[in-house]
Amino acid sequence: MRVLGGWLIGAILLMGCNANDDHRFVSDNKVVKFNSWLLEASSVSRASGEGDFMTKEEWRAGDYIGVYMKESGKPLSDHVIIGDVDNNKYMSTKDGKNSIFIAVSDDDEIYYPYNTLPVSFVAYYPYKNTVTDDYLYPIDISDQKGYPANVDLLYATFEDKSLESMNVPLTFHHQLTKLVLNLQPNLAEDKNAYFGGIKVRANGFCTKAKFSLVNKLISNREEIETIPVKTTSDGKRVEVILIPQTVGTDTYIEFDLFGDIARWNISANKVFEAGKQYEYTLYLGKPWIEVDEEKISPWGDEISVPVNWDDPKYFPVNLVKISGGDHLIGSPENTVEAAVNEYPQHETSVGTFWISSYEITNKQYVDFLNFLSHQYGKVAEELQPHNTIINYEGGAWHVANSSKDNYPVTNVTWYGAKAFAQWLGGDLPSEAEWETACRAGNYGLFSFSSDNNNDNINDLYPLYVNCRDEILSNGDNAVLPVNDNRLAPNKYKLYNMHGNVSEWCRDAVVRNANGSPAPYEYKFSGEGNLCVIRGGSWKDPLMNCRSASRDCALPEMQTDYIGFRVVFPISNVPNLDFGKIERVLSID
C-alpha cells in the first residue's frame, strides 16, 4: 500500500477523518501504516529454471489488492464502511514476502478517522472492480496456463485498530486449494524419462464461484470445465489452484506427452479444503499411473516479523511521500524579507506525490545519458551537460572524477532535467509541490525555523543551508555532495531544499520588471518562455534560500548553480517501474 519508499505488503498511509465526514482531511499529519505479509511457502513452489513462483507465494511489483475500512466488531456492509474506503485499490512496488503497497490514485488513499474510535480493515488479492454490492468476490480459476498466481485468492483482516499505534499488521491467507504433483517415470520405465513439453489438463472441477468478503464462505460453484495447467520447464512439477470442493465421479488429471496419454482418476467425493495443500508423487507409465501417498499440509505457515517503521529499508529508496491536500504557498503580507513576487500568500490544492530525497547526482544523470546513447545512438544537444565534469569518451558517458559521483548534477538545461524525470516515469515538481515539500509543514522563513518563529535563524541555518553569506554555512564556498553529513534534512527528510543548488520546477512564468517571476496574482496564460527555479544555491545569500523565494531562468540556461530533483505524482503509480527507480536513485 502506500508507504511508498524503499517501496511489506503494505504501507498504506491512512489519515484522519470521521465516518460521516470527508475522508480527505488529515489530522496532525499522522498516518496509519499496514505492515502486511504473505505466508511462507509450505513447499518448494518455484518453477525449476525459471526463478519464479508458480502460485502466489511472493508478492510481485504490480500486484493489486482491494481494501475496506469499517467499524470494529461489525460485519462488512454498506452501513459500517468508514470514510468511503470501499474497495480502495493499492499496488505492490516490490517483489518478495513483504512489499510496500501504494494507492494508485488520490481517491484510493485511505485516511484515519478524526474520531479515535477503533476501526477494522478487510483486504484481499487480486483486486477486482466486479465485487458485488453484497461483497461477493468472483472466483474464476479456468485459466492457469500462464501465471497461476493470477487466479489465487488471498484474504486478510485486522480488528480494533486504534489511534494509539499507527501500525496495522495484516497477514494474508490463501482461501483456495493448492494441488501439487511431482512427476516421475514409472519404475519400469527409463529413470531419465523426459517430461519437457508435457501437457497437463485438470477435468471435472468447478471453475467459478463466489467468495464472501464478509464471512469467507464460498458459494455458487459452477461451470465444470477443463483447466489447462502450468508445469515447470522440465515438466516434472505441476501446480493447480482449485476451488475448495467435493469432487464428482468424473474428475481426473490428464497427462499428454507427445500423444501418449495417461490419466489419474481422482476418487469420487474426494474433499479439497480451503487453505490446504495436497501433494502427491505420480509415477507415469503408458497408460497407467502409480500414485504415492497423499501429503496434506497447510498452504503456508504464518510468520510474524517485527517491523521498525523508522528503518529506511521499509521505504522506497531515496523517495519521500508528501500527502495531498490544501497547502499555503507564498509569503504572508508585510514579510520584511519577501519579494513582491511571493505575494499574495494563497492556498492551493496539491495531489499526493513522491519526491526524491536528494538532488539528482552526476552519476545518476550519466546513467540516463548512457541509456539514451545505447537506445538511440546519440544524445540530443539540449540534454547534454556542458562545462561540467561529465564527458563523453570511449563510446560512453562518464563522471571524469569519480569522487564527484554524488555531487548534484549542474549545467543541465530545463529540457535535460525534465527528460531525466520522465525517463524514470516522473516529472519536475510544480512550484506548489516544491514549496510544500520544502516547508515540511513549517510556515516560517525556512523549514527549520522553530515553531514558525524566525528569531533563531542565525543559529540554525549553518546546520541546514549551503549558501553564500557573511558566515559560510558549511566552511566551503562551493557546492556540496548531496549526502554530505554536515547538513541536516528538513522534517520530511529532504536534503538541501535550502541552498546547495537551485532546482528547476516545471512551471512556465513571465518576468516582472525586476527580472524575477511575476507575482502569483498576475494573470498568466501559461505561455511564458521562462521556467521557475527554487531553493537558492551555494552562490546565493541566505535570504534567497528561503522557502518562499522564487527565481526564474530561460529553459536553455546551463550554469553551475542550477540542478533539480524529481517527483512522482500518485496518478503515475500504475505505470512506474519501482525497481528501476530504486536502482537509479540509490546513493553509493
From TrEMBL:
EC number: 2.7.11.1
Family matches, as Pfam families: FGE-sulfatase, Mfa_like_1
Presence of the UniProt keyword Transferase in the record: yes
PROSITE patterns xrefs: PROKAR_LIPOPROTEIN
GO MF, one example: formylglycine-generating oxidase activity
InterPro entries on file: CTDL_fold (IPR016187), Mfa-like_1 (IPR025049), Mfa-like_1_N (IPR042278), Sulfatase_Mod_Factor_Kinase (IPR051043), SUMF_dom (IPR005532), SUMF_sf (IPR042095)
Coiled-coil region list: none
Ranges where the Sulfatase-modifying factor enzyme-like domain occurs: 319-567
Keyword terms of this UniProt record: Kinase, Transferase
Residues spanning the membrane: none
Keyword Kinase belongs to the record: yes
Record-given protein name: Serine/threonine-protein kinase pkn1
Upper taxonomic lineage: unclassified sequences, metagenomes, organismal metagenomes
